[in-house]
Design brief:
Radius of gyration: 17 Å
Strand content: 35-45%
CATH topology: Alpha-Beta Plaits
Number of strands: 10
Strand order of the largest sheet: 4-7-1-8
Low-confidence stretches: none
Number of helices: 2
Number of domains: 1
Helix content: 10-25%
Largest sheet: 4 strands, antiparallel
Mean pLDDT: 82
Shape: globular
Distance between the termini: 29 Å
CATH architecture: 2-Layer Sandwich
Length: 122
Amino acid sequence: MNGYQLTFYTEHNRHHGHRTVCEWLLHEAKNLGIHGVSVINCAEGTGHAGAHHAAHMLKLADQPVQIILAVTEDEARRMLEAVEAEHVHVFYTRSPIEFGVLGVEDHREEHKHFSIFGHKPQ
C-alpha cells in the first residue's frame, strides 16, 4: 500500500491544553481510527528554531520526542487537518512510503506484553 510517513517533532514538556502534545497527537490519531503510531524518545536534538534540546539525568522535560505514523493519503490529510483546526504548534514531516504487513499472524499463540515492571499478559 502506498501512503505517507507523518513524523511530528516536539519536546516531552510541550503542552496543548491539559495534555502534552504527544498525548494529544496519540489521542487524535486514535479518534481518527489511525492505528500503528510509534513514539520515540530521543537523547537530544536541535529544534527548527535552532535551540538545543536534550534529556538530562534528573530532568526529562526538554527531551525531544518523535511521533511517527504510517498512514494512507486520506488519513494523512485528516490528521493534518485536525492538528491545524486545533492550532497545535508542532513541526512535522510528510514523506511518501510503501507499507504493509508480511507473514501470517498465528491467532493461536498467546500474545504477551512485557514490561520493565513485570510480566503482564494482554
